[in-house]
Amino acid sequence: MSVIAGLDPSMFQSSQSDPEMEQLNAQVEKTFAEMPPVHTLPPQVLRDAREQGAGIWGAFKILDEVKVRRIKGPDGDVEVRIYNPGEADGVYLHIHGGGFVLNRAHYYDEHIASIAKACQVVAISVDYRLAPENPYPAAPDDCEAVAVWLAEQAAVEFGTDSLVIGGESAGANLAAATLLRMRDHHGFTGFRGAVLSYGVFDLALTPSCRRWGERPLVLTTPLMQWFHAHYVSEDKYDDPDVSPLYADLSGLPPAFFTVGTLDPLLDDSLFMYSRWVSAGNPAQLDVYPGAIHGFNFFPLKVADRANKRITDFIGQALEE
To answer: Per residue in 186-215, pLDDT tens?
Structure first.
């Protein structure tokens, strides 16, 4: 399976799907079908299972080289995890996914370390507060605080003020929201690029997510509704700070969108890419036939290619 940049009808044909991806999809669907629907379980049960390395994502590895730093936030300190290769060409600010409810920054040590090594950057992951214990605006407030710190201190702390931001799923939402807050609240437009992987950009649900149903390929329509209900009240779903698809997107940096055709959030990336470009910003869109949500975190050849495309974008953004 090869990546197709932009839109082409052939990418949505099942015949284009890679056999390796199809095997993964069957395994993921079988695993989820044999367990209670995720949206019927309490968040803490899911968090505890993830901490123990259970589920489709497997065990995570905490790296000794990743250092913990606490940044002053609006309601206490915000923990960040930093992989510093020493001499760096820039800083990559990473915001993890998990539906605003699940996951922690330490799950991503290997991920941010791989980006740091590939791009020769300092990679930083934000351990923002999670809903429902800390609903909106806690998560974007924490991410904004870290971005402000970087804008003010990156040159002193890391020897470079070249910044790129990115995230996956809910993390892509928060990355976009952080760019908008930095522009609107602080007059800062210094980020050189944005990596927005299979993001959720409309909490009211785009057509692909609304029509997906309960097929358990990582996400389902009820699960997305469960995530969003925990995060913020429904009357705010069209608030641009909650759903960046509705925002004025002018004056933002080049963006790199990645999504698979078997991701309920497909339309989120298609729509956001179109709006990003129509607002006058450069953008690239990679669509992977047959790929599911989070596919680039699985041990697949196509995942390696997708991740290489992402690190290439980060490197190019820092060179410009």
So the answer is: 999 999 999 999 999 999 999 999 999 999
Q: What are the tokens at 69?
A: 């730093």
Distance CA(245)–CA(121), nearest Å, equals 29
Which residues are identified as catalytic? 169, 263, 293
Domain 4-319 CATH superfamily? Alpha/Beta hydrolase fold, catalytic domain (3.40.50.1820)
CB-based contacts of 211: which residues, under 8 Å, 6+ apart?
Answer: 221
Cβ 92 vs Cβ 193: under 8 Å: no
Which residue type occupies 45? V
Residue 259: CB atoms within 10 Å: 28
Q: In angstroms, how far is the first alpha carbon of the chain from the final one?
A: 30
What's the full length of the chain, in residues? 320
The 8 Å CB, 24+ separation contacts for 156-161 are 158/84, 158/88, 158/91, 158/122, 159/87, 159/88, 160/88, 160/89, 160/90, 160/91, 160/122, 161/190
Pairing of strands 255-262, 283-292: parallel
Q: Domain ranges in the chain?
A: 4-319
In 3D space, the residue among 217, 294, 286, 225 whose CA is nearest the CA of residue 257 turns out to be 286
What pLDDT digit, counting tens, does each position of 107-143 carry? 999 999 999 999 999 999 999 999 999 999 999 999 9
The predicted model scores a pTM of 0.96
Whether the CB-CB separation of 100 and 227 falls below 8 Å is answered with yes
